């Protein structure tokens, strides 16, 4: 089996998107399948045509000059499609597997139609909702509706669709997409990357001023939807109950300046520590210091539909997890068993949940064991990747109906 993956971006960039991609491709290679990847024109790691990283060939699409809105996207689709076609001519894939955003599916669709190669479209989040989540879009706007309609059109014409969670599957079914066309390939982790948790880095703890502290931590990107402002707002109430509690925030992003200003104005400012971005190889040192990983995502369409990767990575490393009770978290966390859930957008509820967890140290080890066992049995990529095989086999054995590509997009 030869699978060509069409991606927005890839390694060596470090992100949840690239970690999932790497896990899928490495697990497919471990099954004996041949894989290659093409990344889009928006991602330029250095101007090279091909990079061989971690045993995977990443073919790059040249950068493009900026044009007015809409024309830019059309130009990108055309150029990306041309690059995918070049790689497909050399690689001769049995399956073209495009990953969101929808612009990738549209570029891959042209090539799949021309080659009569089956197309699988994998959706990790809806592009229009992701734009709302990161502050570059508005729900219900004309652009939002147009992208949603285009997404629906692309899903209807792909030969099979993969989504990362039940929330996305239910949304597509509500749009009239046949349920049997959609497979769920949930977020998972490559357990080969996670050995025994490292011993606490005492020197690092001393340097941060958190030696002997009860440490709440967040490691990731600082987007508004992550709810870190609610977590900072909870800290005075948490410290009132647990005077040794400290918050460590590792990462950066659009909300960083606002969050730093909020923390500086907090009456417990000395209990809140910003580390900034750190090299990926250094992240484990910070994990070693954190007692509870907190994920206080806000309640909105994006977080209700999409499951994040970070809580699974934390469980794989036998860390305690506390998160808001949005839909994406409820698919991952069993309250009181593998983690703790609290009301989204409610600093008092966050403080109460964290205080209760910090006070119940006797339950920690059992929760860590259950969290790790959940990942091993249900969210391990060595197992998860097998979900693709029956879809791939059906498509390569049954062929493609070319008529499905020919109808123009309609509003949804």
TrEMBL record:
InterPro entries: Glyco_trans_4-like_N, Glycosyltransferase_grp1, PEP-CTERM/XrtA_GlycosylTrfase. It comes from Sphingomonas immobilis. Residues 16-188 form the Glycosyltransferase subfamily 4-like N-terminal domain. This is Glycosyltransferase, exosortase A system-associated.
